[in-house]
Amino acid sequence: MTTAKRAAFFRAEGVLLSRGVLAATAYYAANAQKFSERALRLGVVALSAPLQGLLGQNDRTLANRLAFLAARGMSEDRLAELGEEYAEDMLKDKILDQGVELIKRARAEGHRIVVLSDNIAQIMEPLLQHLPKIDDLVCNHLEITDGEATGKLLDPVIGSHGDGKWVQGYAERHGLDLRACAAYGAHGTDLLLLAGVGRPCAVNPDFTLRRSAREAEWPVIDYQE
Amino acid sequence: MRRLSIHESYAGKHVLLTGASGFLGKVWLTMALEGLPEIAKIYVLLRKKALRPARDRFERIVATSPAFKPLHERYGRDLARFINERIEVVDGDISSPGLGLDPEVAARLHRDVDLVINCAGLVDFDPDLRDALTTNVDGTLHVASFMERCQKAALLHISTCYVAGTRNGVIDETLIADYAPNGEPFDAAAELAAARARIDEIIAEHDGPAKEAEIHLDALKHIRERRLDPDNPTLVRNISRRIKRQSIKDAMIEEGQSRAQRWGWTNIYTYSKSLAESVLVPYQGKFRFSLLRPAIVESSLAYPFPGWNQGFNTSGPLSYMLAGWLRELPMRKDNPFDIIPVDYVCTGMTIAGAALLQGCHETVYQCGTSDKNRLSIDRACDLTALAHRKHLRRKGDTVVDRVILARWDGVRADDIDHTLSVPNLRRFTQGVARTMRELPRRWPKAIRRRAEKVAERADKIDESLDTIEHLIDLYLPFIHDNTFVFRTDNLLSYDIVEPEHRWDPKDLDWRHYWINVHIPGLRKWCYPLFEGKTPESYKPRYKFSLSEGAETKSAPASDAEAQGEVG
Which residues in chain B are contacts of A34 at CB distance < 8 A? Predict the structure, then answer.
């Protein structure tokens, strides 16, 4: 554990990864145990897709909750195995080199590295081995009862405006000086997270975040292909 | 909690092990050789086979069985010397009176042995009733007689949790005299006598002129079908003999099944193992003994190495079926599937043996997981699908395997009779074969030839489905019909001093065990058997010969000289 009093917060989706949660939930849905379940679950994901589009630039809580409903009734074993498989076969190749460079640079500057992800732990934890050393991973967790997912995301749901508040609590717990901390976000949802730190940075921002970053005169990074 | 030191208990003791050629016996033996150096001597009782003496058999077992891999790796060329110092192979057979021992050897064993571990047993679910009774019941009686002559020995008899039969609920660790699962009044001795009388009757029936004539006609029919010479008396005699042998065997299996079902046991194996327990009851007070009842013994978690398995077992055929196109297996939701890795069972045996040596033993130890760390049958099914998926996605032979079969997950069917049940699939394949064979004669020959090929293919599929149907019937009591939870408090009632000998099923991480250890182990050691192939054999680095170790002291394992290296 580093003793650094400052941290760099990275939003995984958009900053470190070029793929969001919908693909993950679709993967789960398509690989459920029964064929009939697969169709039903894919239907749920399809329903949540427009919601992700509509709310993606503001608060994705509802959209994330709906998307992960597709995992309802799925066994914890299947969630873990498919999560590992998805991280290894699908997500690993979607890691953005420029994002990795940002982590390395922040580490070199003595920042504690914290990654926030809308995805669930079953996917993000196996993915960590492909990223530079991360001090803390903050991601979503599915509620599990009797070895099966209820489909409910446990609070606090990551990917909401609540992330900004969460960062404040995190800073208090770890004795961080938020004014010396950096944050890298990509969506309108990250506004409060970025606003809470002394060194915000918008990365490949969506329309909402780009406009706000311009108004607040935050630096904007656009990854080059 | 009673404090129990495994090392102190076994120090200087002489242990006689039967069934050392079996899955459990081998693993216990290697574990004891490696982990219990205090044992003064282990006598391995092996029966000679054909012209191969027991010692040669044992030498071959050590030389080729993967169970001995840790010992080969640890001792290298020094293994023969190590084994000769620790083990004495004894020529004998538990199915013979006096264990078939040479009188001089028997006298020595009666004097020296402190603990007898009786692992020998026939574990096929539905064997010939004669074999089941000879090995499992008479064998136990012979061991008990041997024990009576011993000066100080205690007996650890390996039974099975499933002697409980077709009962539901929590099964206690108790030995009930004249136990029958259906609760009807039962006399084990009378049942044994009746079973033996029936065996004699079946043989007499087959020796009678009516049956002989029937067999002769069958033999002639068989010869004609194969277009052989029905006037060849030697051929007729040989085929008649074979048909008679098979007919007797079938009758014995049928008789055994009907007796087992009559009293509420799941199969001949559990029936005969329960009878063996019952015949031990009168010996209470004559010598110290404990019964260790493992549940379903499966691949090792860690020792001799992760995934070691041997022969046909319970979850092997089930998981093999689910590796193919069969999708639905009847199983009851949340039913415990009481699997226990073989190394856990061997640790349990070591503990029970130590308790016997110390005189702080219990009469029955159950060794399973359903009580403390339950794996449900539907979870096992899901894990099996995930394990196959993991393998097939990367190592499937064909694109179909990698893309489709990998995602063709086996699922639980609540009812035995469901749309895709094996009997329904069989009806379908039989229907296809029939239709293809009954095409109108006016149809072109080419089409009828093609149809005949389709019919032949359907016949083959039907044959496979027949095997699957038979297997499902065998396993239904365990996966669908009954709900067993076997209490395992007794093994946990000791405070084991040495951490490496502690037994706790709660430690088992089912996901890791099933996906990364058990199914890959089955794939390597058991599935080839289902496909008529021979599993990979073990070739130690140094050629193993017991005589070498007995005559000369070999160089230590670290010696790099490659004399005798075989692989």
Answer: 409, 411
Q: For residue B216, what is the enclosing H or E element?
A: helix B209-225
Q: Which of residues 459-518 of B touch A (CB under 8 A)?
A: 510-511, 515
- Do B382 and A33 make contact, defined as CB atoms within 8 angstroms? yes
Number of folded domains that form chain A: 1
Q: What is the pLDDT of residues A196-210, one digit of tens each?
A: 999 999 999 988 899
Per residue in B49-90, pLDDT tens?
878 899 999 999 999 999 999 999 999 989 999 999 999 999
The per-residue pLDDT for range B115-145, each reduced to its tens digit, is: 999 999 988 888 999 999 999 999 999 999 9
Q: Which residues of A fall within a CB distance of 8 Å from B393?
A: 85
Residue A23 and residue A67 in contact, taking contact as beta carbons nearer than 8 Å: no
Q: What end-to-end distance do the CA atoms of chain A give, in Å?
A: 34
Can you read off the two tokens belonging to residue B357? 């040596």
C-alpha separations of A135 from A1, A117, A122, B381 in Å: 7, 14, 17, 37
Q: How many other C-beta atoms are found inside a 10 Å radius of the C-beta of residue B258? A: 12
Residues 6+ apart with CB under 8 A from B240: B215, B216, B218, B219
Q: For chain B, give percent helix, strand, coil, nearest 5.
A: 55, 10, 35
Neighboring chain B residues of A80 at a CB cutoff of 8 Å: 511
Coil vs helix vs strand at A155: coil
Phi, psi angle pair for A70, to nearest 5°: -65, -20
Tokens standing for residue B305: 């190495």
Torsion (CA) B502, B508, B512, B516 in degrees, nearest 10 = 60
Contact assignment for A80 to B389 by CB distance below 8 Å? no
- With beta carbons under 8 A apart, name residues in chain B contacting A79: none
pLDDT band at A164 (very low <50, low <70, confident <90, very high): confident
pLDDT for B541 equals: 85
pLDDT attached to residue B567: 29
Chain A contact present for B382, CB below 8 A: yes
DSSP state of B336: B
Long-range contacts of B61-66 (CB under 8 A, 24+ apart): B61/B20, B61/B21, B61/B26, B62/B544, B62/B546, B63/B540, B63/B543, B63/B544, B63/B545, B64/B537, B64/B538, B64/B539, B65/B26, B65/B310, B65/B538, B66/B304, B66/B305, B66/B308, B66/B525, B66/B537, B66/B538
Q: Is residue A166 part of a domain?
A: yes
> What confidence tens digit (pLDDT) does each residue in B382-418 have?
999 999 999 999 999 899 989 889 988 888 887 777 7
- A24 Cβ neighbours under 8 A, 6+ residues apart: A86, A91, A119, A120, A123
Chain A positions in Cβ-Cβ contact with residue B518 (cut-off 8 Å)? none
Question: Could you tell me the residue range of the domain that residue A185 belongs to?
Answer: 7-221
- Taking an 8 Å cut-off on Cβ atoms, the answer to whether B511 and A75 are in contact is no
What does the alpha-carbon distance between residue A221 and residue B132 come to, in Å, rounded to a whole number?
77
Model confidence, pTM: 0.88
Contacts (Cβ under 8 Å, ≥6 apart) of B63: B540, B543, B544, B545
What is the total residue count of chain B? 567
**How many helices and strands (H and E) does chain B possess?**
22, 15
On whether the CB atoms of residues A69 and A44 are closer than 8 A, the answer is yes
Q: Does the CB of B333 have a partner CB in chain A at under 8 Å?
A: no
- pLDDT value, residue B411: 83
- Residue B189 confidence (pLDDT) above 90: yes
- Residue A171: CATH number of its domain: 3.40.50.1000
Contact A77 B383 (CB under 8 A): yes
Under an 8 A CB cutoff, do A85 and B390 touch? Answer: yes
Decide which of B551 and A149 is more confident.
A149
Does residue A2 sit within a domain?
no
User: Among partner residues B386, B393, B411, which is closest to A77 by beta-carbon distance?
Assistant: B386
* Rama region for B178: left / alpha / beta (φ>0; ψ in -120 to 50; rest): left
